[in-house]
Amino acid sequence: MRKNCLLAILALVGSLLGAAPAATQNAPIAARIKDIASLQSGRDNQLIGYGLVVGLQGTGDSLRSSPFTDQSMRAMLQNLGISMQGSQSNAKNVAAVMVTANLPPFASPGSRIDVTASSLGDATSLRGGTLVMTSLSGADGQIYAVAQGALVVSGFSAQGQAATLTEGVTTAGRVPNGAIIERELPSRFKDSVNLVLQLRNPDFSTAVRVSDAVNAFAARRYGGPIADPRDSQEVIIAKPKTADLTRLMAEIENLVVETDTPAKVVVNERTGTIVIGSDVKISRVAVSYGTLTVQVTETPQVIQPEPFSRGQTAVQPQTDIMAMKDGGQVAILNGPDLRTLVAGLNSIGVKPDGIIAILQGIKSAGALQAELVLQ
C-alpha cells in the first residue's frame, strides 16, 4: 500500500509540474532571513539533572536491582529530616530518572521550560508519577533551572497472565512548563559587537545573497555596507555606531532573500521513500529494468501404511518452484527538469524499490547530475 501511494504521489507531482510553465520550474524560492538563518548567540543550551519520580502504582524500580534508587531515596529523606538507617523498603512506587531540557536563548529568571524525564532503572512505567524537585545543570556545572511536576506519559502498557499489550514508550515522559529558570546565561545579547548569522542549509550562493540583501538595506539606512560572508554558513554583520542591536536584528531578519540549494536525491531503502530536488537533472540514458521472482511452495503429503501392516506413517516432501520475470522494457530518460524526470520514471512502471535501483545505476553511469544520499 505504501509503494502504491508513493507512485501515485510521483504521478501527481509530475502532472502538477507539467502544468507549470517551464521558466518557473527551477525558479529560486524567496524566504525571509529569519527562516533560513539563525543567530549564533541565540542558540539553545542543554541542561541535565538526576531526580526521582514518586507516586507510581507498583511500576517503579526494584530497589534491590537498582541500588542507586534506594540510595537516592534515603538521601532525599535524610535531607527532609527522616532517618531510614537499618530499614528496608520493597515498595516499587519510586523510579530514578535522568531529566533533560533545552534552555532557550535569552531566557530570563522566572520563566518556565519543558523537561523530559527518562527512566534509569528497571521501572516498567512512569505513568501517574510526579517528578520531585530536581536541579538542572549546564555544561559548566552551574545550576540554571529547577524542575518539578506531574509527568505526562503518552504510551501505555497492559499486562495479563498470558498476554501483554504495550503502545508507545512508557518509561519516558514530559513535564510541560515543569522547570523554572533560576539563573540567566552569562553573555548578553547587547554586549555583542557584531551579529553572526548561521545558515541552516550552508550554501555559498545563499550566503552571498544574504550579504547583498543586508548591504543593500544598510546602504539606504546607514550609508554603507555592514555584512561580510565568511564562508558557506556564516555571515558577519558589523554593528553601526548609531544602531540599536535589537532593532537592527529585527530589521535584518525580515529581509527577503532568494535561496539556492544543491541538487540532491535522497533515498531511504528501508521505507522506499524517494525525494528528488527541483534542480536534479539526468543526462540522456537508456534504462531497462526487469525483476525475477522465484516462488517456492512446500506441500508435504502424509503417507499412511496399509491396514494391519507393519509400515509406519511417513511424510513425503513435495516442492513446487515457479520463476516469473516481469518488465524488461527499455525506456529513454532525459531529465532536464523535475517534470520530465518524474514522467520518465513513471513511464517505466516500476515500484519504488525499482526506482531506487535505477537511480543508483544512473549515478554509477555518471548520468545523474546530483548528489545521491542513501539513508
Give helix % range: 10-25%
Order of helices and strands: HEHEEHEEEEEEEEHEEHEEEEEEEHHEE
Number of distinct helices: 7
Mean pLDDT: 80
Output the structural class. alpha+beta
Q: pLDDT under 50 segments (min length 5)? A: 5-25
Strands of the largest sheet, in order across it?
3-4-5-10-7-6
The count of β-strands is 22
> How many structural domains does the protein architecture include?
3
Shape verdict:
flat
Major β-sheet, in short?
A: 6 strands, antiparallel, barrel
Radius of gyration: 32 Å
Proportion in β-strands: 35-45%
Distance between the termini: 21 Å
Features:
flat; 22% helix; 375 residues; 3 domains; Alpha-Beta Plaits; 7 helices
Structural notes for this entry:
With 375 residues, this protein is α+β, with helices and mostly antiparallel strands. The protein is built from 7 helices and 22 strands. About 6% of the residues have low confidence. The protein is flat. It has 3 domains: 138 residues, no CATH class; 131 residues, no CATH class; 72 residues, Alpha-Beta Plaits. Helix 1 crosses helix 6. The longest helix is centred in the middle third of the chain and has 18 residues.
